[in-house]
Please model this.
Amino acid sequence: MLLSKCKAPQDEITSTPDSSPLGTITEPSREIEILEETDVLVIGGGPSGVTAAISAGRAGARTTIVERYNHLGGLWTGGLVLPLLSTHALNRSGQQQKVIHGIPDEIAQRLKDMGMAIHEVNPTIDPEATKYVLEKMVQEAGINMLYHCWMSNIIVENETIKAVIIESKSGRKAIMPKVVVDCTGDGDVFHLAGESYEEMKYHIGLVSRLGNIDRIDKTKPGYEEIYVGDPTPLKSVNWFNMHGENDQDGTDLHNLSKLQQKYRIDIWENTEHIRSIPGHEEVFLLDTASQLGVRVSRILDGKYKLTLDDSMSYRAFDDVIGICGAWTSLLYNANRVSRDNRPLWQIPYRSLVPKKTRNLLVAGRCFSFDKPLVEDARIIGTAMITGHGAGTGAAVAARSNSSVQDADINQIQKILKDQKAYLG
Ligand SMILES: Cc1cc2nc3c(=O)[nH]c(=O)nc-3n(C[C@H](O)[C@H](O)[C@H](O)COP(=O)(O)OP(=O)(O)OC[C@H]3O[C@@H](n4cnc5c(N)ncnc54)[C@H](O)[C@@H]3O)c2cc1C
Model:
């Protein structure tokens, strides 16, 4: 296929460019070398991308991951957000039940076996051990891994993504996929594809870790009990979450740069404050996360928007691809419902499916949900469940040469069950 015959999305989509006082410049068109063809192309190697790729690979699809950084796990590892939340919830018989099974549970189990996960419910993991486990599992599934490259554009023809453009030290290259899974967290692919979506401004933080926690001397004169983060599998190390500022735009370059600078300074100065309190002199700043903590930004307006009502009412879907748990209390119909009283909830395949593009699925914190569901929809457990469903859906669509909208849900559910997913 000649790339020059394909239309760039900008030709098909009427969008208003960001207004700059400096105006715009036209980039000349150019021929781009085709790097590879693949069945399933996963953009982003975070919790959703890894599970999507492993499920597609195990289902027999030739699969590639494109990841901008140098490791797998996304915010879970590079963002240092260590607890895998939403593993359990209340079932219809009123009992707490484990709901995260399949590939996500296999990842958690491998970490437990290595002594690198603590807590049975919502396990907290070690980030370097997790990068290692994910690397091994991706290799075992025969996935082709492309690190250090950004997905920067797509070429769309007849509502089908013909090519995905990546940028790296090797230059600009094209990958020709049968099906693409958008696991960028920020919906970079569906944004370029011209799908409709909502934007949500929310808290952005920067997580850090403190070392020498086991050397805090509680007998020191003047010692005070202060918050020094939460435990990790390493006894000398705590992770320090940051809620961060609210109402923040997670896709604005200037905003991200401003927050990055502010948080780096805040974290260093906060650690100095901790070290100044008697008994805490040996505590030190082990690291700050290599990626800023954007909780949510673009949210797909897909075939179906999952709602808070769905999640609070045991709603069952014919096209269920996975079940999620609850990790926090929330307000529902003016009542505060505690975590322990919250029901398990189903995710339908159609909430991973965009309205137009025939070969694109979406997983992770940008799949199609209603904003009131955000606290549960943006969590690692949910990201991995949606990844498992999307990867399987992509493999089925690629194998049968069907659109993602027409992919056979019975086949998808059969493969998911074979891969030990829990569908209720
Ligand atoms: C401060 C903070 C604390 C949190 N605490 C918790 C917690 O305790 N427990 C919990 O369960 N969840 C927590 N979360 C949420 C959790 O981080 C997310 O649910 C989860 O990481 C989402 O996974 P994802 O795969 O959708 O996206 P991400 O983890 O964001 O992964 C996306 C991946 O795609 C890559 N990528 C993005 N764009 C491109 C591109 N254009 N080209 C190539 N690669 C690209 C990124 O580098 C990244 O690896 C927290 C989030 C934040 C910000």
Remarks:
- The domain at 33-200+296-418 is CATH 3.50.50.60 (FAD/NAD(P)-binding domain).
